[in-house]
TrEMBL record:
CDD domains: TMPK. Residues 7-197 form the Thymidylate kinase-like domain. Transmembrane segments: none annotated. It is an enzyme of class 2 (transferase). It comes from the Bacteria. Keywords: ATP-binding, Kinase, Nucleotide biosynthesis, Nucleotide-binding, Transferase. GO terms for molecular function: dTMP kinase activity. Belongs to the thymidylate kinase family. It comes from Desulfobotulus pelophilus. It catalyses: dTMP + ATP = dTDP + ADP. This is Thymidylate kinase. Its EC number is 2.7.4.9. ATP binds at residues 7-14.
Amino acid sequence: MLITLCGGEGAGKSTQVRRLSEKLEQKGYRVVVTREPGGTAIGRKIRALLLDPANRAMVADTELFLYAADRAQHLAEVVRPALKEGKIVISDRFADSTTVYQGVARGLDPERIQRVHELVLQGLLPDITFLLDLLPEEGLSRALSQANQGTRSLDEMRFEQESLDFHRRIRQGFLALAAKETNRFCCLDAMQPQETLTDTMLLVIEERMQSRKN
């Protein structure tokens, strides 16, 4: 099973990935935790390019193809092998983030992005995608607080420096995706307590697993 988490900056995706994996492992599941970009050694080098605030001159096309390159390596090296072994893969971000960040927020042609997805994904889609929905003002405030506390790297805050309008487009883009693909997406209010969010996600996952058995 492939489970992905998406949402804007500061929504708590990394925290929930960790908490969710711990809970699932306690229940006896074999879990692989990963992220995009940066789920592989090559991907970590790509991540450094994509998220470095110094790379302000990077254009949307460069972002698109760097994310695609990271994803191709990620699928080949981490995701597909783990799925083949029957493990649960939980990824902090996946292709939906490219659709929203480079498509909705940057304005790239959605059909062009879809063609790139088709080349890289080759039909693979998440079984469940959790959207952690949060007002961008709150998310950016959280991200800044994390940076000040040293729990978020200042070297990876290029997108946090974008305008508030950019982040509002991201939120609306994710909400539109979730409304379009209701069978795959589960939209959650990221203002809820962490424990509540984790418990809700666990319930959704276990219900989906049970429906597969039936």
